[in-house]
Amino acid sequence: MSIVILTGAGISAESGLGTFRDEDGLWTKYDLNEVATPEGFARNPALVQDFYNARRANCRGASPNAAHHALGRLVAARPDTVVVTQNVDDLHERGGVTDVIHMHGELFRALCAACDHRWDAPEEMSVSAPCPACGAPATRPDVVWFGEMPYHMERIFDALERATLFVAIGTSGSVYPAAGFVGEARANRVETLELNLEPSDVGGQFDAGRYGPASEIVPLWVDEVLGAR
Ligand code: APR
User: Fold this and answer.
1) 38 CA → ligand 1 middle, Å
2) Does one domain contain both 48 and 11?
3) Is residue 98 domain-shared with residue 114, that is, in the same domain?
4) Could you list the active site residues?
5) Residue nearest to atom 30 of ligand 1 (CA)
6) Rounded distance, CA 59 to CA 101, Å?
7) 129: left (phi over 0), alpha (psi -120 to 50) or beta
8) Which domain holds residue 37?
9) Ligand 1, atom 5: nearest CA belongs to which residue?
10) Is residue 171 lining ligand 1, measured as CB closer than 6 Å?
């Protein structure tokens, strides 16, 4: 059985990182057009760097929860499991998943907008910091913004084609292309399961759904898959 898992902000909610579209989500406090688009970065790079510096610090102070650790156990027992995340935090890695596909990039990586060089981001990124490779003051978080192409799409669609089970965890199913993965799985005759606090915008497309806090329902599901129950 080859499992492909897609995670969203909901899996990190109980680690204190917050989500985007829940009632106290990030997009209720910040205008995503100002902090998560190339146009917003061009208008006010300092505001964008501050936004991601705060999220980086928040993440440093957070710990992986039982859902992250359960996926770490699953991957250890089933190394052919593919974990794709929309999250830019590093809680999957700290929960034991080694090869995470970060389709929206990573908080802890930096990108040079001038020469495409990537490197491990410092704790605090600033607008004036020169790119270590070309020296241009064009550094930005290596995070995929709205209107930009998500990373690793070919690898993701290849995994969805070969999968026997597609599981979405902690995502509202409101942002494409990730929200379309369930449709892609169904077109490939792959069984689909949604694990979420409540049915997502695409919940009706899944063969099955289990609802509740990820820290409770994900470990239960992993134990079932591993035959521990
Ligand atoms: N356990 C499980 N699911 C939860 C929990 C929890 N404790 N708390 C919240 N959720 C669910 C919510 O019900 C919701 O369906 O997690 C989902 C979070 O949805 P969003 O806030 O929209 O986050 P996400 O789906 O990851 O957003 C996708 O949008 O803004 C962009 O790039 C950003 O990657 C993000 C993308």
Assistant:
1) 22
2) no
3) no
4) 104
5) 20
6) 18
7) beta
8) 18-61+108-143
9) 10
10) yes
CATH number at residue 112: 3.30.1600.10
pTM above 0.70, yes or no: yes
* Cα 114 to middle of ligand 1, angstroms: 32
The residues with which 211 forms a beta bridge, in sequence order, are: 196
* Contact (Cβ atoms closer than 8 angstroms) between residue 135 and residue 142: no
**Best probe residue, ligand 1, of 171, 194, 220 (max atoms within 8 Å of C-beta):** 171
Q: Tell which atom from ligand 1 comes closest to the C-alpha of 173.
A: 25
Name which of 13, 8, 4 is nearest 182 in CA terms: 4
Residues 208 and 164 in one domain: yes
153-208 pLDDT per residue, tens = 999 999 999 999 999 999 999 999 999 999 999 999 999 999 999 999 999 999 99
Answer yes or no: are the C-beta atoms of 9 and 170 closer than 8 Å. yes
Q: With contact defined as beta carbons under 8 Å apart, do 33 and 40 qualify?
A: yes
CA 120 to chain centre: 18
Cβ 112 vs Cβ 139: under 8 Å: yes
